[in-house]
């Protein structure tokens, strides 16, 4: 469950609100499943009367749907249609339009991999939209978020010098070492190319799985483990051209920036590769990705930095 919900006047947490959030979070984490009262109460650690009261109110408001079987014990609950409206409204408030999804869909269909749009919301990296190929299991879901602090988040600041400095000034999520010369080469090369390529490494795969949903303040034990996985800013960035043209490299994602009308980087479009590519194959996909990022920039009325 997320952090405590403070009372507006006293700053104290609101336990009744936290119980509602716990139920919605649990059901959103299991979107294809249905749960009865007893199981929901047990999984969310609520008494059955309390759980039933919350479920009844949420169902009446359309946030949940109750499916009735042959008897009372057969009633199950799942997410309801009102949440669709809320989700679309939230996306629009974050400047994610239906046209953005159309652009991601074209990108996904062209290259046969998941295309995603992410941004920094309330100082957390948040997945705003995603289009995956048919029958592809979703490794991440819309709304999933991660702490935004070194070494996580370079692609969200790379094209904005001030944003890079502010990001580096944040307290890192894990102990870091920094190869300054390489970091500068990464910045220069990615800005010149217009995209960033991140290697697929065992540490990188585990990093995001461990950090999903975590608060910005990580437990010491988790910080230590992450420090063993990733400890140098930009170490997972691959710079094309460093090996022969036929060499294949395990690539995690290719990312390109989206800019607003102030020419500030506000979002990132990514292709979730998860496989081996040559430099030419990387370049082909990067060109399509940049085209999509430019289209999204135009939708925002934005433009690239000079």
From TrEMBL:
One of its GO terms (molecular function) is DNA-binding transcription factor activity. Residues 82-302 form the IclR-ED domain. SUPFAM superfamilies: GAF domain-like, Winged helix' DNA-binding domain. Residues 14-81 form the HTH iclR-type domain. Keywords: DNA-binding, Transcription, Transcription regulation. Gene3D superfamilies: 3.30.450.40, Winged helix-like DNA-binding domain superfamily/Winged helix DNA-binding domain (1.10.10.10). One of its GO terms (biological process) is negative regulation of DNA-templated transcription. The keyword tRNA processing does not apply. PANTHER family: HELIX-TURN-HELIX TRANSCRIPTIONAL REGULATOR, ICLR FAMILY (PTHR30136), TRANSCRIPTIONAL REGULATORY PROTEIN (PTHR30136:SF8). This is ArsR family transcriptional regulator.
